Amino acid sequence: MRNTIDRGCAENTTLTRRRLLRRTAAAGAAGAVAGLIGTEFAFADAAYAGDTLVVLSLRGGFDGLSAIAPIGDPDYYRARPTLALPKSQVIAGDGTFGLHPALAPLLPMWSLGTLAAVHAVGQQNPTRSHFAAMETLENAAPGTSIRSGWLDRMLGGTGATGPLAGVSLGNAMPARLFTGPSPAVSMTGIDDFALAGESPKRPMAAALRALYADAPGVLAGAATAADAALGRANPLRSTTYTPANGAAYPATPLGGALRDVARLITSGTGLAAAAVDQGDWDMHDSLGTAVQGQRMYDNLNELATALAAFATDLGPAGMAKVTLVTISEFGRRVVENASRGADHGHGNAMLLMGGGIRGGKVYTKWPTLAPAALADGDLTVTTDYRSVLGEVLQKRCGFGDLSTVFPGAAASSFGLAAAR
Amino acid sequence: MSSPTRRTLLRGATALAATAVAGVGVEAVVAAPAVAAAAGTAGLVSSDPIAHLLRRATFGPTPDMLAEARRLGVTGWLDRQLNPAAIDDPALDALLTRLPLAGAGIAGVRAKLPVHSYEAFGQLGRAALARAIWSNRQLFEMTAMFWANHLHVAAPSSGVWDSRSDYDSSVTRKYALGRFSDMLKASARHPAMLTYLDNRSSSKPHPNENYARELLELHTVGMIYTEADVRAAARLLTGLTVGTAGTYTYNAARHATGAVTVLGFSHPNTTADGGEAAALALLDYLATHPATAERIATKLCLRFVADEAPATLVAKLAKIYLDNGTAIAPVLKALFTSSEFAASIAQKVRTPLEDLTAAVRALGLGIEKSGTKALDALYHHLVKAGNAPLRWGPPNGFPDVAAAWASPSAFLLRCNIHLNLAAGWYPQQLTRPADLLKALVPVLPATYGGLVDALARRLIGSPLPSAGVAAVLSVAGKAPTSPLMSTDKQLAGSLPYLIALVLDSPSFQLR
């Protein structure tokens, strides 16, 4: 798998007619207000007081063993004679784990303690299929009949109801993380989210609203959500966004998406949950050594540059109300293959960034890479990724009970985030 | 929170199961409206069988093709379309000469382009879009796109700059209406597939599992394999690689010998020289595996029938597929003449690509006089929508169900391209009828309501509900009863908006 995104799902059509109508009415009112007050945002959406949660999906199978290398584990060097990160190249860490040099742009956050990693984390599901693994990762309710995405359930639990409370950025297609009844908007970018031809003389939006008033939900859902979201996006789009504190986003899809997330956050449109993607992690071949021009180095560096720009742009005050987490469908095989790459694996590393994160360290119950400790050749999962997310939800997003978002999972007790 | 969701889904599933049962006999006639009602889309499009067939088997009905299908009847039209070599395509052929690298072989691309150039990808994607819009061989093109999506090799993707066009012509297009087993074996021996899924660098001591896994999971049997099957298949596939000329080669020195078992297939695999034949035997086994038959039948149903494949039709098509040695044409013919297909009116929603192709075809917009600027613009519209031909990144291909595409952004993109096409703002180079209004509505109706009604019948194939007509007219400040005269000075200015809104309507989203 080379590029970016797997989208696709079979059940995004669950908005009831009543719910759609309710949302239309609310959106119409909000749009009118926005028009009156121009770019001054004063939206009174339902009161969600927790962190904005930004979920960054690393598509294809992130190699946590390269990013947060287990340099204290001798089996790491036995399994990866050409690909293992040499101890001499790590830029931070604790002697047991070391950060890949391509993550250098994130060093300030690591030192400041706003960036942490969790290792040997992952799913219970042992599948090594991208598509099955992404589906269960994003559903996050194994063993239940729940079909929605966990970010949809999280959004529902926050009580945030604004038309831009849940947004995925970087792709026009709906994000499966948001599959379910809580309305979320996908956009390629804020500047692209516009309706052509709309003018006082040609009220296209009103005509479309009337055209879809009686349409079945399967066809009306997107139209109605677009209508609602336009009321918020129109004034945003009309102002040029200049990142603060000299933040320089890379000209990459992830850079652009995180820039728009920051734009939504700083404009006070009520963003509670955002989903963004970075692809090209499926490094079966040419993963490479830790030098510029190699696949792993370059993709990690792009990731780090974009995350650093995001944190710089929002600044400490902004990041105090934001938590960003990375997830990936699985880690990669411990032993390298003939193509100087690594095949699909199991356990992995997650990154967490935010003012409320207790960073500068790697949280893990390390199972070791000793052959007998591996799960079918792969890093054993000792921490359910849902428990890490659960700890974030409890400490940063105001969730007491996790059973709706992550049925059957308990929050981890790492203490990786400070209570708000 | 999740319980109403679940209930809704179960209700949907139950209703669809009813189709499956009803499909066997005359009950299908009764079942059709019931199923359409479940989705709420009944009545939004014409239930005329010919119109239904052309909404599904083409990239959008046109008046000419509708007339042809009415003349030939369902079977006659299908027989003609299933023999594409007998159909002339002069206008498209002329356009394709402007995209020579779309049809070039590996040596040809290498001779023309610097290494890692994206030029051939660009031409190939545009050619695929042009064929969808303007080819007379509509069912062939629809089927070729289905197979390109099934045995997907993303364009662009790294390493296949020279081989992706050849893969298109010598694998997915070559066998689109042939035998799947031939297509599968051709894909396994093509540098594009071997590069995209990394088998080219696999080796005896450390097999690369990428291709083996997707061969099982995506190309053939689906999620019934074990990790042991993947590892065994990866070993058997070692040696299938790419030579220095960029063409396929079998390298016995890289082949891992030793007995293998994959699902129910076993092979002694004793010699390195015999490794290629052993791998091909596995591919033949997989192509004719009942799970492959069921999976391909299901995917064809998702493409052409409904987002929930009717179980009876899947079983019927899987049997025809196996009985005919994996030949595709008999399966397609059975699908389009089945009672399940007949009962599936208004059950599919157009993807962004289908929305674009259907809009261009409905408006009668023709190939640009020279160059490819318009085609570039249409292609880039689909890049934004995430649906440009062949451009999906992962190896599973584009999703083919409505929910995967239903988003606010996608909706706005549709509306925006409709207005741009109707007004001729962008792209400007497409050949337009001298008088678009006359071309769509030859005789001017007496009222604005009559005009929208005529536009809807021409562009969608059925009228809009009266509330829809009023909604469309609101953009022009008119009511359905507003009189319309040829001297009306506002008409020209309003027309693009009226056309766009008809194309924006819920009915046009259906195919």
Q: Which key features would you list for this structure?
A:
heterodimer; A: 420 residues; alpha/beta; Alkaline Phosphatase, subunit A; 9-stranded mixed beta sheet; two-stranded antiparallel sheet; 11 helices; 32% helix; globular; disordered N terminus; B: 511 residues; mainly alpha; two-stranded antiparallel ribbon; 26 helices
Structural topology:
The complex is a heterodimer of chains A (420) and B (511).
Chain A: H1 17-37, E1 52-58, H2 64-67, E2 68-69, H3 74-79, E3 98-99, H4 107-112, E4 115-122, H5 130-139, H6 150-158, E5 166-169, E6 185-187, H7 204-211, H8 217-237, H9 253-266, E7 273-278, H10 295-319, E8 322-327, E9 348-354, E10 362-364, E11 383-384, H11 385-396
Parallel strand pairs in A: 1-7, 1-8, 4-10, 4-11, 5-6, 5-7
Antiparallel strand pairs in A: 2-3, 4-9, 8-9
Helix pairs in contact in A: 1-8, 9-10
Chain B: H1 2-22, H2 27-39, H3 49-57, H4 63-81, H5 90-96, H6 106-112, H7 119-134, H8 138-150, H9 164-172, H10 180-188, H11 191-196, H12 210-219, H13 227-237, E1 240-242, E2 248-250, E3 260-262, E4 265-267, H14 275-287, H15 290-304, H16 311-323, H17 329-336, H18 339-342, H19 352-363, H20 373-385, H21 408-423, H22 436-440, H23 448-459, H24 466-473, H25 491-504, H26 506-509
Antiparallel strand pairs in B: 1-2, 3-4
Structural class of chain B: mainly alpha
Task: Give the averaged pLDDT of chain B, no decimals.
Answer: 92
Number of strands of chain B: 4
Q: Write the H/E string of chain B, N to C.
A: HHHHHHHHHHHHHEEEEHHHHHHHHHHHHH
Mean pLDDT of chain A: 89
Largest interface: A-B, 83 and 75 residues
Task: Specify the helix fraction band of chain A.
Answer: 25-40%
| CATH overall fold name of chain A | Alkaline Phosphatase, subunit A
Figure out the total of helices of chain B: 26
Biggest β-sheet: strands ordered side by side in the sheet of chain B: 1-2
Q: Largest sheet of chain B at a glance? A: 2 strands, antiparallel
Q: How far from one another are the termini of chain A?
A: 39 Å
